[in-house]
Specification:
179 residues, alpha/beta, Rossmann fold, 6-stranded parallel sheet, 8 helices, globular
């Protein structure tokens, strides 16, 4: 029996795809970075599937900011450097930023290969949905931006590996399962 108070978990590679799907930042990051190789490979397969089926990939502009931060944090972590290096010693960042720029270029190339609908968070009505999502579901700000944008557009399919936050949101199809 499906619990109406939880998201409906979907399997990325096995379930039938909808016409439109929202993507959380962690999906894009996992598609580019290979720090979790199984997740990376599944993301690559899922991307092939959504291109083949011409699924409309939706996201909001917050993703660009979050992807950059994730790439920077990843390269600093791999180099065993503090994530606060950009604040404490910005002059030391230069060699790391070249790697981040390369990863970011791969992200932009990925986006160019998808059928996209990008939402700019410049409408007060979108903002109101974001604020409501943050309060009602106790989400971090970036997660509230993603869910609020979905609520604003009336869509309910989300690709995200963040079961902790999105798994408890009723009436959404959470595309996160891949094992």
């Amino acid at each position: 029996m499906i619990n109406p108070n939880k998201a409906n978990l979907k399997h990325i590679l096995k379930d039938e795809l909808p016409e439109k799907i929202f993507c959380d930042t962690n999906f894009f990051v996992s598609s580019i970075l290979r720090y979790e190789i199984q997740k990376h490979n599944v993301c690559q397969e899922f991307i092939k599937k959504i291109i083949e089926k011409r699924v409309l990939v939706c996201f909001n502009t917050v993703v660009y900011y979050e992807v950059y931060i994730a790439f920077l944090n990843n390269v600093l972590e791999r180099a065993k450097r503090s994530k606060k290096l950009h604040i404490t010693q910005p002059e030391v960042l230069e060699p790391y930023l070249k790697v981040v720029a390369s990863d970011y270029e791969r992200f932009i190339t990925l986006l160019k290969g998808l059928w996209l609908m990008e939402f700019k968070v410049s409408d007060i009505n979108i903002f109101n949905c974001i604020a409501k999502a943050q309060v009602e579901h106790r989400l971090h700000i970036a997660d509230a931006f993603h869910l609020g944008t979905m609520l604003f557009t009336g869509e309910n399919n989300l690709v995200s590996f963040d079961k902790h936050d999105f798994g408890n949101i009723p009436n959404i199809n959470l595309w996160c399962e891949y094992d």
